[in-house]
Amino acid sequence: MRQMMVAGNWKMHGSVAFTRDMIQTLTASVTVNEAVTLLVCPPMLYLTQAIQAASNTSLSVGAQNCAQIQTTGAYTGEVSATMLADVGCQYVIIGHSERRALYGETDAVVAEKTKVALAAGVKPIVCVGETLAEREAGQAETIIATQLDAVSKVIGAAGWANAIIAYEPVWAIGTGKTATPEQAQEIHAFIRHQLAKLDAHMAEAITILYGGSVKPDNAVTIFSQPDVDGGLIGGASLNSDDFAKIYAAAVAH
Ligand code: 13P
Questions:
Q1: Would you state the pLDDT for residue 177?
Q2: Of 130, 134, 168, 253, which is the active-site residue?
């Protein structure tokens, strides 16, 4: 059985009060099933607060990004994976399409960040996905293979064994347009197939999340696909009721 996960990517949303209330509500209202990790990824500034509020609970906390350099140095404004580990952060989202599109993160940068996260002992959630133009041009699989290959070259099968992948079609993010369960399954199976070329056992065991307009009413059918191991949730993770319902859908699947 693969470990499942429901992860909330708050993006640049929240406040001290929001973080306090959300963690309190989630830890009080959600019974965490050990087969499904429950994770929230607040903005960097609220990480320590979230980690402290979630300590001694089954809620995990992750970051949304880390520096390309592992430890310390003259890199104004950056936060290293070592620092994330230092404050007790267990996961980090790497290469989200917003970072690729808005902050120029190339496949090579994503690979390097994945490597430093692994070295620091912070589990990377590596995001891949195609744009609408790429899908319409029939290039979805080629794009995803390229994104995966860049990371594989740097971390190898052993690195993937300690990582998570999130398939997030760019056209489904924040648009209310979700991939159909069949479209998600097709790409998830493709990702597993690509990784199996490195190591079949690792490919079978790796957790692959779907992200892009997952809501309480579509979570069940998406999570019921054989190669979908949970979700990376944006907008709906900012509402504790919706997020709890999506978590329940993953547990029920
Ligand atoms: P939405 O759930 O808001 O579409 O965002 C998905 C996402 O980008 C999660 O990382």
A1: 84
A2: 168
